[in-house]
Hints:
Blueprint: E1 12-16, E2 22-26, H1 29-39, E3 49-57, E4 60-68, H2 73-80, E5 89-97, H3 105-120, E6 125-130, H4 139-143, E7 147-158, E8 164-165, H5 179-185, E9 188-200, H6 204-213, E10 230-233, E11 238-241, H7 253-256, H8 262-265
Parallel strand pairs: 5-6
Antiparallel strand pairs: 1-2, 3-4, 4-5, 6-9, 7-8, 7-9, 9-10, 10-11
Amino acid sequence: MDKDTRPILYYLFIVMNFDGNFYVKPIWKNQAYQLIYEFHYSKVLPKLNKYFIWCFIDDSLVWVITLWWGVRPLHTIKKLFPSLWTKDYYEIWKMCFDDAMPKNTESKFISLMLDWVKKNDTVKIIFTRADWMLWKPWYVYQASNFLYWWFIFTDSYFWPDWEKIHPRMTNKIWGRPNKEKQKELWWKHYQWKQFRYIYFVCDKRTKKKLEKECTVILNKEYPKHKDLYWKIQTDKWYIQSEKPEFISKNINFYLSKKWETAPQLFTSI
């Protein structure tokens, strides 16, 4: 069996300029977390990070991206490309940039990141999921020539103050709550479209082979803003809804520690 023999976790500080030059030096995870907490709307950092890629201009941090594997890494890649293994892909997890930067900044830095991966790693695929939180289908991936791989419906719960609870976080309480428990806590349960994109960072011959092997249709028929869709759970079923509220300062379920007192929090409301 083909196994990945590289270190599971290490952190790199990759400083890029608009001309494509960069250099690398080590960085601690907690340093990365501090900057992600400042720039990113989601404050939870996954455990399996492979690279932290930070971009500076004139000594100012303007962009950060992390590459890692998803919740079910082997399942993800095997579903798309049966011959590949977890060592053959990364998933973009965190990506954010300074709002003061020009509109094309993200696509420029994504291009630099992809070039760096091609030169310094052996993965063949970069995979990403367009998060619904910013109410857009992530046009930056479309502008960067990622291929579109349809959508899935995913979900989350919300406290009355619109703090988001990822379904996996509910393991800290009792597991996924049923409708009765959601009512007790005044939780709202939303589902929405999550758009998925893929980029090949391998050579042209390998890309052609993988395109033939791929089990889904990859194309550039990109989703637009009109394709965004949310639905909320009711007593009987899900119905279409407006986009849920989102307050980024309330997004960190771990730091808020609400899960420690969850069963008692809203029973008196």
